């Protein structure tokens, strides 16, 4: 088995992260770091920190030169960072030492690596946003079409009160809608890092702040106005959001797994997997991927939080931990979004199976409604006690709560109580409100 499922020839299509996979490769990282070096030189040339002619030559070369990522490994092993090897290789490829001497002027490795990471995280968030919008559109259509379709509500795995399938779908979608609304704030953490060796920008003197602002503008990133070498908050706020998205999608995956299981059959998946030995199996593979990938993302986010405890002005161990953790977290979150995007359009509720549950439940889902209905003639505590007694009898002896209640209270009209359509509360309104909110995006 490969070190990570996203790098596996066998498993990468199962845990499909889509276009996000291209963002977390050695070649993508090298390309991003060269873009940062080029933008830095251009900004320094404009401010007169380095000769403008050299700045132009460096900027142009970063767009033209292709470096072999494999050639950086030996020096990265010695230095603990890829930048010294990258700068040396780039200077050699430029073949213009009079200009190349100004590459990476005053910057430190973390400035380049972190800023290059932010360029790739920006692309990741754009892909996640598009995937969430597609998923929400499909969920909104489902919620709107089935706003009034009654099904059993369950708490702790037990019958509760009736809900509608549309309201269940809205319950899956609302957290995703919240995440999408929060995304603009999350994007504000896409920041440049430029503060030099110990975070003070001492090499650039009073030009440090203008240079950081110019680099931010050139790359389309935010200017933090400070050093964040040892403050991993900008990265952690992004990983927190990725984890929230993953968890929200995994909740849908958990529900779908239960709804599709044998003996329930309340949902039909558009695509299901088979067994190597049992021909009858229709395995809920996509929901399982949602749950597994989310568990992975959540676990890795905990590691990221630990890596946020960086020592002093920079901490090699904390930074290395990010390198080992962050790419997989990002790809697992992207896997959740891509899987949900493919899964949701094929979901089909099974109304007949949902209806059969009401017959099998012996009327117990209407117990709460019955207790409130009886308060027209009984004090609330007594009504609750009577209904609880009737429920115990039905569970023990069989039969239906409607018949037991009618026998106990022959003079009370119980028709408003029994029948799922009349006990949905605001379930349909929840479904339609969610659909409208998605449409308003």
UniProtKB/TrEMBL annotation:
<dbReference type="InterPro" id="IPR000362">
    <property type="entry name" value="Fumarate_lyase_fam"/>
</dbReference>
<dbReference type="InterPro" id="IPR008948">
    <property type="entry name" value="L-Aspartase-like"/>
</dbReference>
<protein>
    <submittedName>
        <fullName>3-carboxy-cis,cis-muconate cycloisomerase</fullName>
    </submittedName>
</protein>
<dbReference type="InterPro" id="IPR019468">
    <property type="entry name" value="AdenyloSucc_lyase_C"/>
</dbReference>
<feature type="domain" description="Adenylosuccinate lyase C-terminal">
    <location>
        <begin position="362"/>
        <end position="435"/>
    </location>
</feature>
<dbReference type="Pfam" id="PF00206">
    <property type="entry name" value="Lyase_1"/>
</dbReference>
<dbReference type="GO" id="GO:0016853">
    <property type="term" value="F:isomerase activity"/>
</dbReference>
<dbReference type="InterPro" id="IPR022761">
    <property type="entry name" value="Fumarate_lyase_N"/>
</dbReference>
<comment type="similarity">
    <text>Belongs to the class-II fumarase/aspartase family.</text>
</comment>
<dbReference type="InterPro" id="IPR020557">
    <property type="entry name" value="Fumarate_lyase_CS"/>
</dbReference>
<dbReference type="GO" id="GO:0016829">
    <property type="term" value="F:lyase activity"/>
</dbReference>
<keyword id="KW-0413">Isomerase</keyword>
């Amino acid at each position: 088995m490969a070190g990570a499922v996203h790098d596996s020839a066998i498993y990468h299509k199962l845990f499909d992260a889509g276009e996000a996979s291209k963002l977390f490769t050695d070649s993508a990282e090298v390309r991003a770091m060269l873009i940062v070096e080029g933008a830095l030189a251009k900004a320094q040339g404009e401010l007169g920190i380095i000769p403008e002619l050299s700045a132009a030559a460096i900027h142009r070369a970063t767009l033209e030169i292709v470096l072999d990522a494999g050639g950086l490994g030996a020096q990265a092993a010695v230095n603990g960072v890829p930048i010294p090897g990258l700068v040396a290789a780039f200077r050699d490829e430029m073949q213009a030492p009079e200009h190349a001497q100004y590459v990476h002027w005053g910057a430190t490795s973390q400035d380049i690596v972190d800023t290059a990471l932010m360029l790739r995280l920006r692309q990741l968030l754009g892909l996640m946003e598009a995937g969430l919008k597609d998923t929400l559109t499909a969920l909104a259509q489902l919620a709107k079409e089935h706003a009034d379709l009654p099904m059993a509500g369950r708490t702790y795995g037990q019958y509760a009160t009736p809900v509608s399938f549309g309201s269940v779908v809205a319950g899956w979608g609302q957290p995703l809608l919240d995440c999408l609304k929060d995304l603009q704030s999350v994007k504000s953490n896409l920041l440049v890092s430029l503060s030099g060796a110990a975070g003070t920008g001492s090499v650039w003197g009073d030009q440090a702040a203008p240079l950081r602002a110019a680099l931010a503008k050139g790359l389309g990133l935010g200017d933090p106005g400070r050093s964040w070498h040892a403050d991993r908050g900008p990265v952690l706020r992004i990983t927190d959001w990725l984890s929230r998205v993953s968890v929200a999608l995994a909740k849908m995956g958990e529900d779908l797994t239960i709804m599709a299981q044998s003996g329930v059959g309340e949902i039909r998946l558009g695509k299901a997997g088979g067994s190597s030995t049992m021909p009858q199996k229709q395995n809920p593979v996509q929901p399982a991927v949602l749950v597994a990938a989310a568990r992975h993302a959540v676990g890795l986010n905990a590691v990221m939080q630990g890596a946020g405890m960086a020592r002093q002005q920079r901490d090699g161990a904390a930074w290395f931990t990010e390198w080992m953790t962050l790419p997989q977290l990002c790809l697992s979150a992207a896997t959740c979004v891509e899987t949900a995007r493919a899964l949701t359009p094929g979901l089909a509720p099974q109304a007949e199976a949902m209806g059969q549950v009401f017959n099998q439940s012996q009327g117990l889902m209407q117990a709460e409604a019955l207790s409130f209905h009886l308060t027209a003639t009984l004090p609330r505590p007594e009504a609750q006690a009577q209904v609880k007694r009737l429920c115990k009898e039905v569970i023990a002896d069989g039969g239906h709560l409607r018949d037991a209640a009618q026998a106990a209270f022959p003079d009370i009209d119980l028709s408003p109580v029994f029948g799922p359509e009349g006990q949905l509360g605001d379930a349909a309104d929840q479904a339609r409100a969610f659909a409208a909110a998605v449409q308003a995006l």
